[in-house]
Specification:
By secondary structure, the chain is of the alpha/beta class. It folds into 3 domains: 1-246, no CATH class; 302-555, P-loop containing nucleotide triphosphate hydrolases (Rossmann fold), CATH 3.40.50.300; 563-739, P-loop containing nucleotide triphosphate hydrolases (Rossmann fold). The protein is built from 16 helices and 12 strands. The chain has helices at 2-13, 32-54, 66-85, 100-296, 365-385, 410-414, 427-449, 456-463, 484-496, 524-527, 539-555, 617-631, 651-655, 670-694, 699-705, 727-739, and strands spanning 314-320, 346-351, 358-362, 391-396, 470-478, 502-509, 531-533, 582-589, 593-599, 637-643, 661-665, 713-719. The chain has a 4-stranded parallel beta sheet with strand order 3-6-5-4, with helices on both faces. It has a 3-stranded antiparallel beta sheet with strand order 2-1-7. Helix 13 links the parallel strand 10 (637-643) and strand 11. The longest helix has 197 residues, at 100-296. Residues 723-729 and 736-741 have low confidence and may be disordered.
Length: 741
């Protein structure tokens, strides 16, 4: 029906006739399945002519305004060329081309011809559509007839199935009723049997219960008689003990009291002795702590920066002075327990071995000044107790714009790294410095500690002269000018900085609220006691100490690694092979690794040592030459040493006849340097020829082939002087560099 409706709508929309002549449908099949297949086949036969009809383009020319536009287009197509090409004289017309009459005749003729063409096109379109719409209607009506026949047969089949279902249902219901009647009959029979069994059991139990009851009563009477006799005997014994026992109890009570008194006197004497002994130990321990703290952190007027060992692990801040009167039940009332010393001075210090950190809280200007002085003292102590040059301060002082810690800027006169260039105050600067500290912690964790060391202290103990400096973060007036990002970074540093050698010293202004989510660390035990802080030295003494300690740090900035740390053991001298590469140790890279120069592998073929005068270029060159000669034998390594610095560098190798040295140029001139480079150039050409003959690309391949005996590696050591490498010498030098691999 959908296809038929589409076809009819298409014809009506295009002004074509929808009347068709239908043929008689073929008789339907008798079987149900064949009828269904035939119906589906007719539906498929309707689809093809319908789609062909809808694809026709000619009928679309008569839809809507299309006929008028088509007629106008045909009329114009006929009239225009006719007016342009046909001369009126050819038709014996008494007119010219531009006459109105002639134009009307041409237009009228074109319109008539266009109308005839339109009628012909409409007839053709109707004729084509008639055949297709006839197929659509024929197959559609056949499909409808088959579907109606299929519905009737399905209804008959359904009625037959319903009758069969009703017959089966009736039969099943009759079977169920028969089964129920049979089950009821069996149930009544079984119930009668159980009733009979129950009555017989009741009669049996009644006959046996009377005899059992008599037996139990006899046993009860016998037990009562026995208990009566036993109770009389026990009662007589109790009366006898009641008359004689009080005197014994009184004597035992008196003896026990005397024993308790003796134990009490002994215990009291022990308590008194222990009390005074423990107080004496506490006094002695407090004095020992005080002396130890003063030894590690002497008074400011006695401190000499030059004598600071840098080995103490304690930063003295002041002292606590607890008293027995301040402790609940601490003051004894008994005269024997009253001590001679009733309060003690206990040093308040930062233990650098156990998560060192300092948090100070204040509420008013007086408290702020006291907190700043405590931070100053702690910073100055850190400069004295940690190894010289191993302390780097990062100071954040947004409240006073750095005025509180300006004395420490003397450290920048020696080395900017000691004070991180300046004191930082602005929010953006604070975020950047905390980000730098966070990045430093990441570097320490990933590059230094890894899974080998628990803390930076343990790493530094093994690193020795290449120890990593400690970072001290000083914050005054938190949270002033601290953004949320800065607070989050600060909290991460406080939580994880101890392992990385970051020591936070923080003063918190409690009048400024701390944002939610950042809880301050509290120690209830310390809050019980009042701490008497050690004041910093006088301003003049303060400046003198900072300058002296800064100068001491500057004096030890130069790191020297003993040569024996990188030199091979006696058994390892001349033990390496130069076939693959040269691996020459020159120093230490951290606590466990050695820094080496690799040559002859990949693009690592040359070394350029550059630096200002006195920076250690010659020292490094000597370390390279000496360690290379110790690790590789003369059969493995050959040296060309050219010295243009007046013969002061390589003379020692000539004096002691270094066996690896093929050429040693002392006080060399340009011509000698050119000849040495020419010799190297010839060596390169000879080796290239040998490589081609052997079919190899490098020294390692040639050594594996072993076609022409052992071939050593050649190192050219060049100690230049400005202006020496010119003209032809420069060309030889570039050739040697380009082909040396």
């Amino acid at each position: 029906d959908a296809y038929r409706k589409q076809a009819v709508a298409f014809l009506e929309r295009n002004r074509l006739s929808t009347e068709v002549g239908l043929t008689e449908p073929t008789p339907p099949p008798a079987s149900f399945q064949a009828l269904q297949d035939r119906c589906l086949e007719e539906v498929q036969l309707v689809e093809q002519p319908c789609k062909q009809l809808l694809r026709q383009w000619l009928p679309r020319c008569f839809a809507g305004l299309n006929p008028l536009l088509l007629w106008f287009a045909i009329a114009t197509a006929i009239s225009g060329p006719t007016w342009w090409w046909v001369d009126p004289a050819w038709l014996q017309a008494n007119a010219v081309r531009n006459d109105t009459g002639w134009i009307a005749i041409v237009v009228g003729g074109g319109a008539a011809i266009a109308l005839v063409v339109m009628l012909v096109l409409h007839l053709v379109a109707s004729q084509r559509a008639f055949h297709l719409i006839t197929e659509v209607f024929s197959h559609s009506r056949a499909a409808q007839a088959l579907f109606a026949r299929w519905e009737r047969m399905a209804a008959e089949e359904l009625a037959s199935a319903q009758q069969e279902l009703d017959r089966r249902h009736t039969r099943r219901r009759q079977q169920r009723e028969d089964a129920l009647r049979k089950a009821e009959s069996e149930f009544r029979e079984r119930a009668a049997e159980l009733d009979h069994w129950r009555d017989s059991e009741i009669q049996r139990l009644q006959s046996t219960s009377a005899a059992r009851h008599g037996q139990l009563e006899n046993a009860r009477d016998q037990q009562l008689s026995f208990l009566s006799l036993t109770a009389s005997s026990e009662l007589h014994d109790c009366d006898s003990r009641r008359q004689t026992q009080p005197a014994d109890l009184d004597a035992a009570h008196a003896a026990r009291l005397e024993e308790f008194d003796s134990e009490h006197r002994i215990e009291w004497e022990r308590i008194r002795t222990t009390w005074h002994s423990e107080l004496a130990c506490l006094t002695e321990q407090a004095e020992e702590w005080r002396r130890s703290a003063r030894h590690a952190c002497p008074p400011w007027n006695q401190l000499e920066p030059s004598t600071a060992s840098g080995e103490e692990r304690m930063v003295l801040l002041g002292h606590f002075q607890p008293a027995l009167a301040e402790i609940e039940h601490g003051q004894p009332k008994e005269p024997d327990l009253v001590p001679q010393v009733k309060d003690w001075q206990l040093p308040a210090a930062i233990d650098l071995n156990d998560r060192p950190a300092l948090l100070v809280q204040f509420r008013d200007p007086n408290g702020r000044q006291a907190a700043v002085e405590l931070l100053q003292s702690a910073m100055l102590r850190l400069l004295t107790v940690l190894p010289a040059g191993q302390v780097r301060f990062t100071i954040l002082d947004p409240h006073s714009l750095g005025e509180n810690f300006a004395t420490f800027m003397h450290l920048a006169d020696v080395d900017d790294l000691l004070i991180n260039t300046r004191i930082w105050t602005e929010p953006g600067q604070i975020e950047e410095r905390l980000a730098d500290l966070t990045e430093h912690m990441e570097t320490v964790l990933q590059m230094f500690l890894r899974n080998e060391f628990a803390t930076l202290d343990e790493y530094n103990r093994q690193a020795g002269e290449v120890a990593e400096p400690y970072r001290v973060l000083v914050v005054s007036g938190l949270p002033t000018n601290f953004s949320d990002i800065a607070l989050r970074r600060l909290w991460n540093i406080v939580a994880s900085g101890a392992r990385c050698g970051v020591i936070p010293l923080i003063a918190v202004d409690l009048q400024s609220p701390i944002p939610r989510g950042y809880a301050l660390w509290q120690n209830p035990e310390l809050q019980r006691w009042r701490m008497i802080a050690e004041p910093p030295p006088a301003p003049n003494r303060f400046g003198v100490l900072v300058k002296a300690l800064g100068q001491l740090a500057g004096d030890v900035r130069k790191v020297e690694v003993p040569f024996h740390r990188v030199a091979p053991a006696d058994a390892a001298v001349w033990s390496r092979s130069a076939a693959q590469k040269l691996d020459i140790p020159i120093g230490r890279a951290g606590a466990t690794r050695t820094q080496s120069v690799l040559l002859g592998s990949g693009t690592s073929q040359h070394v350029l040592i550059a630096g200002k005068t006195g920076s250690g270029k010659s020292t490094l060159l000597h370390a390279l030459i000496t360690n290379a000669a110790l690790h590789y034998s003369p059969d493995e390594l050959e040296l060309y040493l050219i010295d243009f610095k007046k013969g002061v560098e390589f003379k020692v190798y000539s004096r002691y006849q270094l066996p690896h040295a093929r050429v040693i140029g002392i006080e060399s001139d340009r011509e000698f340097g050119v000849s040495a480079l020419e010799r190297l150039d010839r060596e390169l050409q000879e080796r290239s020829a040998l490589y081609r003959d052997a079919g190899v690309a490098d020294l390692a391949g040639f050594r594996r082939a072993r076609l022409h005996g052992q071939m050593h590696r050649t190192v050219h050591g060049w100690q230049p002087r400005p202006g020496r490498c010119r003209d032809g010498q420069d060309g030889h030098f570039r050739t040697a560099l380009r082909n040396s691999r």
